[in-house]
Design brief:
Largest sheet: 10 strands, mixed
Order of helices and strands: HHEEHEEHEEHEEHEHEEHEHHHHHHH
Helix content: 40-55%
Length: about 425
């Protein structure tokens, strides 16, 4: 064992009977614990917001969407897209794991005797994975082939606004081909994601029903819904778009299909999430400054309390570098104690909030009804190690002052 570490382990951080020393160390430990706790809470909440908001945006928006064909000659777009075998094979050629599914959105109006609401009726093909919708059901079930063709699922917000619930019947009106079409639906289920911007606007219906209302055939819709990894949506969309362009210029397809992705259609939410990164950096810097200030102050108190010890060590032949390392290692005891306390207090609270949320939010402002938390243990470990490293570097500043003290100075001080 190194001489400096051996000495540091045998020195007490707190000197009995010295209130100034005790107060200084308590402040240092508390400063590190509070700074670490706030950093961990900030990291957990930001990761929670990113995961929850991203999950909801990708639940309502197609991760990658193939839109109706666009004509360069006329400058017009088709009203619908046909999911024929040739188009599906082309998509799978570019993105083998995309699993395309036909989707159809039809604007309409739900009307009761006393109120009405503008709604986008949405339906998907049989290959669509509806785990997101099923996970947020609050009652009943989603429209499916085993139910009647006129069953729909609406959000709790819409149900409360119109005063209707599961089992109730409601009229819907659609504007198709310059005419108004009426349909009587029955509420088969309700859902709530807490994402009010979408909850207020989306209702789910059966694909065949919407196709009949819109006067289109069984393989037509308003877009093709494609799954893709969240991290490279734009890259995957670009690959597919370039594939369509190459085929179009080579004459292998006679129509050019635009490709969009959720990071574009849901840009307002992703841009809001990007602002959180700036907030994280600001909070981390502020907390690092708080911890650094308390550590430096406490270190100077520790040095003043150990002036005689420094003189003895220097008289016995200890070099300035060894004295610096001894006091740095001694102060790191307070840092480690602060890290332990910060973790013991912060992590259990974050775990409780992650699995049993108890801190409410205004969903109108923050898009979620509660404070989301996502604990990434690797990031938490990296954060602890980073705090230790910063603390070590900060402690080198006052430790250099201790190393400059000579035995003669100690005698005059005494």
């Amino acid at each position: 064992m190194k001489f400096t570490l051996w000495i540091a382990q045998r020195l007490r951080v707190v000197t009995r009977g010295n209130k100034a020393n005790t107060s200084g160390i308590v402040i240092a430990v508390a400063g590190v614990a509070i700074a670490l706790g706030i950093m961990e809470a900030t990291l957990g909440v930001v990761l929670g917001f990113k995961n929850q908001i991203t999950e909801r945006v990708l639940g309502f928006e197609s991760p990658i969407a193939v839109l109706p064909a666009y004509s360069y000659t006329t400058g017009a777009s088709d009203a619908t897209i046909q999911a024929d075998s040739a188009l599906l094979a082309t998509i799978r050629e570019a993105l083998p794991k995309s699993n395309p599914s036909l989707s159809l959105s039809q604007p309409g109006i739900l009307k009761t005797d006393n109120d009405f609401a503008g709604i986008y009726f949405r339906a998907f093909g049989p290959d669509y994975d509806n785990n997101f919708e099923g996970m947020h059901l609050t009652g009943g079930t989603l429209p499916c082939d085993t139910l009647g063709p006129n069953d729909i699922a609406i959000s709790d917000l819409t149900a409360n606004a119109l005063g209707i619930g599961i089992g109730d019947k409601v009229y819907a009106y659609f504007f198709v081909d310059d005419a108004i079409r009426q349909r009587r639906f029955e509420i088969c289920g309700t859902y709530a994601t807490g994402f009010n911007d979408y909850d207020e606007a989306i209702a789910y219906a059966q694909l065949a029903t919407l196709q009949k209302i819109a006067n289109i055939d069984s393989i037509s819709g308003t877009s093709l819904h494609l799954q893709a990894p969240v991290g490279n949506l734009e890259e995957q969309a670009q690959i597919l778009q370039e594939h369509f362009i190459d085929l179009y210029h080579n004459g292998e397809i006679d129509k050019l299909y635009p490709v969009d992705n959720a990071r574009h259609t849901g840009a307002v939410f992703f841009n809001w999430l990007s602002l959180l990164d700036t907030n994280v950096v600001v909070i981390f810097i502020l907390m690092a400054c708080v911890a650094a200030f308390t550590l430096i102050s406490s270190m100077f108190i520790l040095i003043l309390d150990r002036v005689a010890t420094i003189g003895v060590l220097r008289a016995l032949g200890a070099s300035r570098e060894q004295v610096r390392l001894i006091f740095t290692n001694l102060a790191m005891k307070a840092v480690i104690l602060g890290l332990i306390i910060g973790n013991v207090v912060a992590l259990p609270l974050l775990l409780i909030e992650q699995y049993h949320p108890f801190m409410p939010l205004d969903s109108e402002m923050y898009y979620l009804p509660y404070v989301p938390v996502e604990i990434n243990w690797l990031w938490m470990l990296v954060l602890n190690l980073a705090v230790m490293l910063v603390a070590w570097l900060v402690l080198l500043i006052p430790a250099r002052s201790a190393a400059r003290i000579s035995p003669a100075t100690v005698m005059r001080f005494e």
